[in-house]
Design brief:
GO molecular function: acyltransferase activity, transferring groups other than amino-acyl groups
Organism: Coptis chinensis
Distance between the termini: 33 Å
Helix content: 10-25%
Number of strands: 15
Domain N-acetyltransferase: 9-212
Pfam families: Acetyltransf_1 (PF00583)
Radius of gyration: 22 Å
CATH architecture of the largest domain: 3-Layer(aba) Sandwich
Protein name: N-acetyltransferase domain-containing protein
Order of helices and strands: HEHEEEEHEHEEHEHEEEEHEEH
Length: 394
């Protein structure tokens, strides 16, 4: 680490009692860069730890100038237990979230120092890998993590954002759609998705969370799914029809409150205060009326998966069902989903209206702990095509 920087900048853990207001002001300045205009206040405002609190092991670090105690950078981190798609194989993965450096103190090594400090924390807490997601167009992040911190690209992601004001189609008349119990959803995800996907090790926590609206499956009416209506019968996972599809819904409609202070907000808009929030505005590029609503929220569609030759029809019907369901949720303005670029399900997601949006993200990984067994370095040797994106990250 740069010795001169060490003498000027101190990295310490966030102190909730004294740092909340300072971090709130700092992040607002970093995100908007404006004192006037449009801002989106998320549930991180007033509670900077809100997203990472959902994980048992988490931390927030701040960088401050030794000379005057000015806060000049923040970073958040969590550790997740993640299934690799190989039966019974899990790894502990540290996740870097929300790295920010004050605009006037950038290009001085502060971001690098924050990342290194977070990596040390992750290793000390048993992380075997560390990951992060960044937008494909974010050259500064790529330079930092790839060229200075030795991260490698794991997968490309696509985040799809659609407003729900348009009239969604009805599911096909040939398709049955059924809601699963939480136990059934857990069984099906673990049994089928867990064989192929990169997925959360605490699936039951996600599906039992108060923000989870439920899980639905679709299959052809001519088929029978034995055991589906017996809520105690988990062997139904072995009796799936020849073709079927599944998805789950996550509610975040209380997260965003929009405040407009100028007549032409698009000219001064900057990324919002969370990874998900930065994805919302593009879907309104042809209209401003939705920006007048408050509170502003979205539903996240996740856990999309399916099998069989009729997967396309079944996934489209399930998608339209979910879209129509979200129209009944108060304050919900858009729906969001995130999939791997090479995930076959992506091709079956219906194209939304002209003001839908598609954002490309990249996942980067680095091995930081454990044996250097090349055969076990699954993150480096094979592309991740199926991703069970954790809705808690949104």
């Amino acid at each position: 680490m740069n010795e001169q920087l060490d003498n000027k900048v101190h990295i310490r853990e966030f102190n909730e009692d004294r740092d909340v207001e300072v971090v709130e002001k700092f992040e607002r300045n970093c995100e908007t860069g404006f004192t006037k205009g449009i801002s989106i206040s998320t549930n991180m405002m007033g509670d900077p730890l809100c997203r990472i609190r959902l994980y048992p092991t988490h931390i927030m670090l701040v960088a401050e100038l030794i000379e005057n105690k000015e806060l000049v950078g923040v970073v958040r981190g969590t550790i997740k237990r993640v299934g690799t798609g190989c039966e019974g194989t899990y790894v502990n993965i540290g996740c870097i979230l929300g790295l920010r450096v004050s605009p006037k103190h950038r290009r001085k090594g502060i971001g690098l120092k924050l990342v290194k400090a977070l990596e040390c924390w992750a290793v000390e807490n048993g992380a075997e890998y560390i990951c992060l997601a960044t937008e494909e167009s974010n050259v500064a992040s790529t330079n930092l993590f790839v060229h200075k911190c030795d991260y490698v690209k794991l997968s490309s992601l696509v985040i799809l954002v659609q407003p729900i004001r348009y009239q969604a189609k009805e599911p096909s008349l040939n398709v049955r759609i059924e809601k699963l119990s939480v136990d059934q959803a857990i069984s099906l995800y673990v049994d089928r998705v867990g064989r192929k996907a990169f997925y959360p090790g605490d699936m039951e926590v996600i599906l039992n969370d108060k923000l989870s609206l439920g899980t639905w499956v679709s299959f052809l009416k001519e088929d029978d799914w034995i055991g589906l209506h017996n809520k105690e019968d988990n062997v139904f996972t072995n009796r799936t029809p020849s073709s079927w599809a599944i998805l789950s819904l996550w509610k975040t409609c209380d997260a965003y409150k929009l405040q407009i202070r100028r007549k032409h907000p698009f000219k001064c808009f900057r990324a919002t205060l969370s990874h998900a929030g930065a994805k919302l505005l593009p879907c309104f590029k042809t209209t401003t009326c939705d920006l007048l609503y408050a509170p502003f929220g979205f539903l996240f569609i996740y856990g999309l998966y399916g099998e069989g030759e009729n997967l396309g029809e079944l996934m489209k019907s399930l998608w339209w069902f979910a879209c129509n369901l979200t129209r009944k949720v108060k304050d919900c303005k858009v729906i969001i989903t995130e999939l791997g670029v090479s995930d076959p399900v992506k091709e079956y997601i219906p194209k939304g209206p002209s003001n839908s949006s598609c954002i490309n993200d990249l996942w980067y990984f680095k091995k930081v702990n454990g044996p250097n067994d090349e055969n076990g370095r699954w993150t480096m040797t094979q592309p991740i095509t199926h991703l069970f994106v954790d809705p808690r990250d949104f």
